[in-house]
Specification:
The protein has 16 helices and 15 strands. The chain has 452 residues and is an alpha+beta fold. The strands form five sheets. It has a six-stranded mixed beta sheet with strand order 1-2-3-11-8-4, with helices on both faces. It has a three-stranded antiparallel beta sheet with strand order 5-15-12. The chain has a two-stranded antiparallel sheet with strand order 6-7. A hairpin with a 5-residue loop joins strand 13 and strand 14.
């Protein structure tokens, strides 16, 4: 669920790296958790509705570049064919605030080519929803890793989905829930007795990986290594890291010989068509869960908690009516998805409601724009846990619907329940909400709270 550091996607964009804390709080002796410096982020706007920043080739038809005082020289800067100059997704200002650009795209340029980014942009809800479900628009190959986007295509992808879906039911789901609940309560209780904390650094960064490691019954000391692998390209389908197979095989052999009650044991003793699941399937499924502990999941969790803390009345409502937690999570994914861009490539020319995508072209489905489309959602910028039908695009759609959606939702619900129980006076620290950062993956880098 995150961009691999230094890896380029098919659109030629280098994914951001999120900096995290130094050691796993779940294991006092956990290994170091080092990260690189943040990559330069794409971004727009110095004020609401004001388009500024680096102009680029963002156009339905080629046009000569117009001069621009804000040009910093990192883009070709062509216009839209009608004289309009728009910033590219790669513009540094768009990472700070992409929403003014999203509004302009939805209103005037629903299908436009961003030459600097190297893709056709789709921004309206119905167009994005249709594109994600269109079999003619396929996911990029595994070498272009963006965690929590689909990377395995055709029969291999379908096989992973078919095998994993039953594995998340019955005994497997019970084992998964037990692991997630335990991890959430351990991390939340570590904060009790404190007066203040940063929930991103001390909770959200760690919970998804800790939860997956705990549910699988792996040693907690491996949590830091799993998080490092997620940064290095381990995807939500268990692909992208050569050491994973060698790491998991010994644990699979031990569980086959002496199964326990953890999720890895459930997978090792499960049967399909009367036969045990092969080791490759068990390792792949375990890798799926470990890969789901990446950046996008912790950013989605951070945005979820930030939205509730920013709306105390809605947080009180969730305290009183825990059955509203799934709705609160879905609304947060709509308003502030952790993944703003899902990449596809057109196998053939694809006619959309906004125009035709050429065969072979890269396509960027702008989830961050689709979730705030006023044609689909009333008052789309408002966070409202009682909103009817908030939609569900944040983890894909159609055959590419992300397998981690159930794990991510379970992690979020267990996280909130644990925090509310362990920290009954939890509230936002004084000061405004820290700005979200990034574009392909986006979320708050800090979340200061008061606990006492």
């Amino acid at each position: 669920m995150r961009a691999a550091p230094g890896a380029q996607d098919p659109a030629g964009f280098t994914g951001p790296v999120t900096q995290g804390p130094g050691t796993c709080p779940f294991v006092p002796s956990g290994g170091a958790d080092t990260t690189g410096a943040d990559a330069t982020r794409p971004g727009i706007a110095t004020g609401p509705g004001t388009l500024t920043g680096t102009p680029t080739v963002l156009r339905p038809a080629r046009a000569r570049r117009a001069p621009d005082a804000d040009d910093d020289g990192d883009s070709d800067g062509n216009g839209c064919g009608d004289g309009t100059i728009l910033p590219s997704l790669r513009s540094p200002a768009v990472g700070r605030d992409p929403y003014p650009l999203y509004r302009t795209l939805r209103t005037s340029y629903p299908l436009v080519h961003d030459e600097a980014f190297g893709a056709w942009l789709i921004s309206r809800y119905e167009d994005v929803r249709a594109a994600l479900a269109d079999p003619r628009l396929v996911a990029p190959p595994p070498k272009s890793t963006l965690t929590h986007l689909t990377h395995l295509e055709d029969r291999a992808h379908a096989a992973h989905r078919a095998l994993l879906s039953p594995a998340l039911r019955g005994r497997a789901l019970a084992a998964l829930r037990a692991g997630v609940e335990r991890a959430a309560f351990v991390l939340a209780r570590r904060l009790s007795g404190r007066q203040e904390a940063d929930l991103v650094a001390e909770f959200c960064h760690w919970l998804p990986a800790v939860a997956a490691v705990t549910a699988l019954g792996l040693p907690h000391e491996e949590t830091a290594r799993v998080r490092e692998w997620c940064r290095d390209g381990l995807t939500h389908l268990g692909a992208g890291h050569g050491d994973l197979d060698a790491f998991l095989r010994p644990y699979v052999a031990r569980r086959r010989a002496r199964p326990g009650r953890d999720l890895l044991s459930v997978l090792c003793t499960a049967r399909a068509d009367g036969r045990p699941l092969p080791d490759e399937t068990v390792v792949g499924t375990a890798g799926t869960l470990l890969g789901a502990g990446g950046e996008a999941t912790h950013l989605a969790l951070a945005s979820f908690l930030a939205n509730l803390l920013d709306h105390p009345a809605q947080l009180r409502l969730v305290r009183e009516r825990p059955a509203l937690m799934p709705a609160a999570w879905a609304e947060s994914l709509r308003r502030d998805p952790a993944v703003h861009i899902v990449l596809r490539r057109a196998l053939v020319p694809v006619v959309t409601g906004a125009g035709t995508i050429p065969a072979g072209a890269a396509v960027a489905c702008l989830l961050g724009s689709a979730g705030r489309d006023p044609a689909r959602f009333a008052a789309p910028d408002r966070y409202d846990i009682l909103r009817p039908a908030p939609g569900q695009l944040a983890f894909g759609a159609g055959r590419h619907r992300c397998l981690g959606v159930q794990l991510a939702r379970l992690t979020a619900e267990c996280a909130l329940h644990a925090l509310l129980e362990a920290l009954p006076r939890l509230r936002r620290a004084p000061g405004g909400r820290p700005a979200d950062e990034g574009l392909i993956t986006r979320g708050p880098k800090t979340l200061p709270v008061l606990l006492g």
